[in-house]
């Protein structure tokens, strides 16, 4: 099967996810700066989540450049990732509406962790399908310290969230910053 339908479907789902998140931002009731202040937590949650969805879109796009043929297992692994990504608007709204309270921040981290695991699964299904020795993706990611480190940081943030939600939030921002720098590993492999 050709990968174009998979890419188009995934792009559509990610666009809907971003649309749902932005629709959660309500217009302030007043006309001065004070009217915006109560909306700031929700706006900051939106910014962070937008960055995360953008990071996944960017890396998903690059990863699919290494795919020669799509199999049923790749389709299901991709749907699994899209499922977890589709929960980002929910936890974003909940964390933002509740001023980054402990439990919403913990659930935010759990959803981010599940996204990272789902991405890892998709990555490994693609590698397995194309053969570990032959797969451009396997060569590009190498030991994937960035991916494994992110999972560890998410787990730490989840543990901190109950007592120190601000530490959890800081860790989520750090992971986003780590991934915000464009990952050139796949581009380098495909150029050769």
UniProtKB/TrEMBL annotation:
<keyword id="KW-0813">Transport</keyword>
<dbReference type="GO" id="GO:0016020">
    <property type="term" value="C:membrane"/>
</dbReference>
<feature type="transmembrane region" description="Helical">
    <location>
        <begin position="39"/>
        <end position="58"/>
    </location>
</feature>
<feature type="transmembrane region" description="Helical">
    <location>
        <begin position="70"/>
        <end position="95"/>
    </location>
</feature>
<feature type="transmembrane region" description="Helical">
    <location>
        <begin position="151"/>
        <end position="181"/>
    </location>
</feature>
<keyword id="KW-0631">Potassium channel</keyword>
<keyword id="KW-1133">Transmembrane helix</keyword>
<protein>
    <submittedName>
        <fullName>DUF1211 domain-containing protein</fullName>
    </submittedName>
</protein>
<dbReference type="GO" id="GO:0005267">
    <property type="term" value="F:potassium channel activity"/>
</dbReference>
<dbReference type="GO" id="GO:0015252">
    <property type="term" value="F:proton channel activity"/>
</dbReference>
<keyword id="KW-0472">Membrane</keyword>
<keyword id="KW-0406">Ion transport</keyword>
<feature type="transmembrane region" description="Helical">
    <location>
        <begin position="9"/>
        <end position="27"/>
    </location>
</feature>
<keyword id="KW-0407">Ion channel</keyword>
<dbReference type="InterPro" id="IPR010617">
    <property type="entry name" value="TMEM175-like"/>
</dbReference>
<comment type="similarity">
    <text>Belongs to the TMEM175 family.</text>
</comment>
<feature type="transmembrane region" description="Helical">
    <location>
        <begin position="101"/>
        <end position="122"/>
    </location>
</feature>
<dbReference type="Pfam" id="PF06736">
    <property type="entry name" value="TMEM175"/>
</dbReference>
<keyword id="KW-0812">Transmembrane</keyword>
<keyword id="KW-0630">Potassium</keyword>
<keyword id="KW-0633">Potassium transport</keyword>
